[in-house]
Amino acid sequence: AKASLTVDVCFYEADMDQAVRARRRVTQALREALDNERFELHYQVQASVETGKATGYEVLLRWRGDDGDYISPSDFIPVAEETGLILPIGEWVLRQACRQAAAWEEPHRIAVNLSPVQLSHVDLPRLVHQVLLETGLAPSRLELEITETAMISDMARTTHVLRQLKALGVTIAMDDFGTGYSSLSTLRAFPFDKIKLDRSFMTELDGAAPQSRAIIRAVLTIGESLSIPVLAEGVETPEQLAFLRAQGCDEVQGYLLGRPQPEADALSQGVAATPQ
Ligand code: C2E
Ligand code: CA
Ligand code: CA
Ligand code: CA
């Protein structure tokens, strides 16, 4: 048993070594990507269910690898968060998005994702204020999306930061609602301007299980009672859209309306499948 344990430990250490090396490679590549402007922003339209018109665009980070293919943010954001590189990357996203949107003909709102690390490690209100001044973007055109993870680590401090942000005139959306452990207490802790219902509920909507429908209805009721508009994410089919409309959902976002695309394409396409 002892020998085999030693062997296991050796394997484990070899794995660790590999994991550490892999992380180091990604970190190095991220740093280079930032220095060499290999990051791009894509925009995905958000639409009003009632009018079918664009209400805003979510800003989604893209990393163009050496082969020209895009590397998904889900693959590199966690590493960027662990290494702290998310701070300069997040600052770049904010500045670039505000700069681009300030030059648009139509004053659409942009929604920028914030990492919990950004919320807890920099003087975020000062940075946002500075970027708004620098780019001339009206504060009301900037929405910041935060997930519940950012709230639970240090609720008191986070709500303080969120209040400072709101005082600048920007709005705050609760992202991925319904996936965490304390979505409801999070809503109680801070007056969010929007609830973004996680797209996992949309996927399940097509299945036979009635649970997702019931949960979507319940979230819409909560939004209604608290006067917080609800946006449903990941809307891919006309059936999903019809259900959301019937239940009084306020806004929608998803492949049905438009994929995340480079700025010019997203703006010229507008809302692909006008909800009606
Ligand atoms: P998220 O904030 O929940 O963003 C929505 C994700 O759903 C995006 O994935 C989007 O492309 C995808 N999506 C939109 N509509 C549909 C649909 O109809 N069906 C399906 N299956 N997917 C849809 P993406 O762009 O890969 O981003 C993944 C996550 O990476 C984001 O999830 C967000 O948490 C993070 N992320 C992206 N950009 C940034 C950023 O600038 N900063 C930070 N901190 N995180 C970011
Ligand atoms: Ca988001
Ligand atoms: Ca989301
Ligand atoms: Ca409603």
- CA-to-CA gap between the ends? 68 Å
Report the count of strand segments: 10
Mean pLDDT: 91
Approximately how much beta-strand content do the residues carry? Answer: 15-25%
Number of helices: 12
The main pleated sheet reads as: 8 strands, mixed, barrel
Low-confidence runs of at least 5 consecutive residues: none
Secondary-structure element string: HEEEHHEHHEHHEHEHHEHEEH
Q: Level of helix content? A: 40-55%
Query: What structural class do helix, strand and pairing data support?
Result: alpha/beta
Which ligands occur here? ligand C2E, calcium ion
Protein name: Diguanylate cyclase (GGDEF)-like protein
GO molecular function, one term: diguanylate cyclase activity
Domain EAL: 23-274
Keywords: Membrane, Nucleotidyltransferase, Transferase, Transmembrane, Transmembrane helix
Keywords:
276 residues; alpha/beta; eight-stranded mixed β-barrel; binds ligand C2E; binds calcium ion; Diguanylate cyclase (GGDEF)-like protein
